[in-house]
Design brief:
Elements: H1 10-19, H2 26-36, E1 41-44, H3 51-63, E2 75-78, H4 82-95, E3 103-106, H5 112-121, E4 125-128, H6 130-138, E5 149-152, H7 155-160, H8 164-173, E6 179-184, H9 189-198, E7 203-206, E8 217-223, H10 228-241, E9 248-252, H11 255-267, E10 272-275, H12 281-292, E11 298-302, H13 303-306, E12 316-319, H14 326-333, E13 343-349, H15 354-364, E14 369-370, H16 376-381, H17 415-418, H18 441-444, E15 461-462, E16 473-474, H19 484-487
Parallel strand pairs: 1-6, 1-7, 2-4, 2-5, 3-4, 5-6, 8-13, 8-14, 9-11, 9-12, 10-11, 12-13, 15-16
Helix pairs in contact: 2-3, 3-4, 14-15
The protein binds adenosine monophosphate.
């Protein structure tokens, strides 16, 4: 099927041709004619399938008639993250190069005054994250009664981030007669309920089974011990052995770990930038820009920050942490192998991750192939503390701790280790990247870079039966946080 057969306007076809798309992708073939018929659409598609153009192109065609009025946007697109919202804005600018439409972005972290100015001039397309939209609505800066088309994008991620109540509120503020286009990569029951409530007799367009791993991505699994320093060493070895790596996204489960890993990689001479939810909008955009324009090779990111990013030519994905929600695995590896290109994903798994790997394999219906670390023997031989090498089955590939990083010395046992078995990933607060996503995480990462520590057997031993300080003994009850003066040898009074 050709773009010319979909019913798009000549202006839109001209820009599609200028961009160089030969044929519509499956979701575009299915969705575009339906959107143009003004039907509600329930699109089940992951990013990388061309779903953005599947709503942007027909919207451009439909927006050619009519004009915007002050503070009354004609169409509204809801995105879960600022980056995604900015990306959709970019798509409008790209695909709408021949249109003179006013597109406004309402996202947190940027000046509200500029956003208000745009709204006052009247916008054809308003792209927003739910929080900022409701904020401006409540201040009376915005009227939603003129919205003709509503797009809810990445609905399952909205669910993960706790935005569903906001979405429900927003939907109730819009005219009943609007057209709704609803996209989600997966359809958990909560999302189905939302779709049932807010779509009217929708056409269901499904381009691949929910949670299908892209076939163009070669997937591998590498075993590592659970110490963060070991995992970092494994990651460095993997990065060095990947001769075909042009750029990569490295995913961590928590934003705190993103920062730690980025600093560690930078110290080891890798060109790496960080992307996580705690960064201000400007730094996020700057990092993304650096990555897109190859000024940095590695993007260390959390799920929330990286969701749906359109970076067309990523060669590798590394899961520094195994995602605890198997759907996140699909989304992560979907960042590579896009638009028919091939890609590689490597997941570093510790023995504690076995059940999460199992869940991923069940969801994708295929086992993930093991990958050998080329430097494994060398790493094992020089590994600090000479822990014996174990089989892949128990997942502990010995590695040498980093010598240069302050945070990478041998670790003290953490208090949180003792709580490991009590964790419950299902209790993770929605949208909180910093909440541990499984029980082992808290134990895995240092709260901050720690100074190099003495080898274990040189360190003071703990004597739980005594409270007084003796040579080489740590007072019981202070955990590891013992003031230095208490550790000095006690000289008996002469
Ligand atoms: P999306 O799923 O919307 O994130 O799009 C993924 C990538 O596919 C983007 O880089 C688009 O530029 C690209 N793309 C979208 N439609 C087409 C098409 N018909 N042919 C080739 N590439 C496309």
């Amino acid at each position: 099927m050709k773009f010319t057969e979909l019913g798009l306007s000549p202006k839109v076809l001209t820009s599609v041709e200028a961009i160089g798309y030969a044929d519509p992708t499956p979701i575009q073939q299915e969705a575009i004619p339906r959107v143009l018929e003004r039907r509600d659409v329930l699109g089940i598609a992951q990013t990388g399938t061309g779903k953005t153009a599947s709503f942007v192109l027909p919207m451009l065609t439909m927006l050619e008639r009519g004009r915007a009025r002050a503070r009354m946007p004609r169409t509204l697109i809801l995105e879960p993250t600022r980056e995604l919202a900015a990306q959709v804005e970019e798509s409008f600018n790209r695909y709408g190069a021949n249109h003179k439409l006013n597109v406004a972005l309402l996202i947190g972290g940027v000046s509200i005054a500029d956003q208000l100015k745009k709204l006052d001039r009247g916008v054809d397309v308003l792209i927003a994250t739910p929080g900022r939209l409701l904020d401006l609505f409540e201040r009376g800066n915005l009227l939603l009664s003129g919205v003709e088309i509503l797009v809810i994008d990445e609905a399952d991620r909205m669910l993960d981030m706790g935005f569903i109540p906001d979405i429900e509120r927003i939907c109730k503020l819009l005219p009943f007669t609007r057209q709704t286009l609803f996209f989600s990569a997966t359809m958990p029951p909560e999302i189905q309920r939302l779709a049932d409530a807010f779509l009217s007799n929708p056409v269901r367009v499904e381009v691949s089974k929910p949670a299908t791993a892209p076939v163009t991505v070669a997937q591998f699994l590498v075993s590592a011990g659970r110490e963060p320093a070991e995992k970092r060493a494994v990651l460095r070895a993997l990065l060095k052995q990947a001769t075909d790596l042009t750029n990569a996204i490295v995913f961590c489960n928590r934003k705190r770990d993103v920062a730690i890993l980025q600093r560690s990689l930078a110290r080891h001479g890798f060109s790496a930038g960080a992307l996580h939810g705690d960064m201000d909008q400007r730094s996020r955009m700057a990092t993304l820009d650096d990555f897109r324009s190859d000024r940095i090779t590695l993007l260390i990111a959390s799920d929330v920050a990286a969701r749906g990013l359109d970076i067309p030519a990523v060669s590798h994905i590394y899961n520094f942490d195994v995602p605890t929600h198997p759907e996140d695995y699909i989304h992560r590896i979907g960042r590579t192998g896009r638009a028919g290109r091939s890609g590689t994903s490597v997941t570093i798994a510790t023995p504690l991750d076995r059940k999460y790997v199992g869940a991923i394999e069940r969801l994708t219906g295929q086992p993930i192939d093991p990958l050998e670390i080329e430097a494994a023997d060398e790493i094992a031989a020089s590994r600090y503390g000479s822990r014996s090498r174990k089989s892949r089955a128990d997942g502990d590939t010995p590695v040498k701790p980093e010598q240069t990083g302050a945070s990478d010395g041998p670790r003290k046992p953490k208090r949180s280790n003792r709580r490991r078995s009590g964790g419950d990933e299902s209790k993770r607060p929605a949208g909180n990247e910093d909440a541990p996503t499984h029980a082992s995480e808290e134990a895995q990462e240092p709260a901050q870079d720690e100074p190099p520590r003495r080898p274990r057997d040189e360190r003071p031993r703990r004597n739980r039966s005594k409270t007084k300080v003796e040579d080489n003994q740590t007072p019981f009850g202070l955990s590891e946080h013992v003031p230095q003066f208490l550790l000095r040898p006690v000289r008996p009074a002469s």
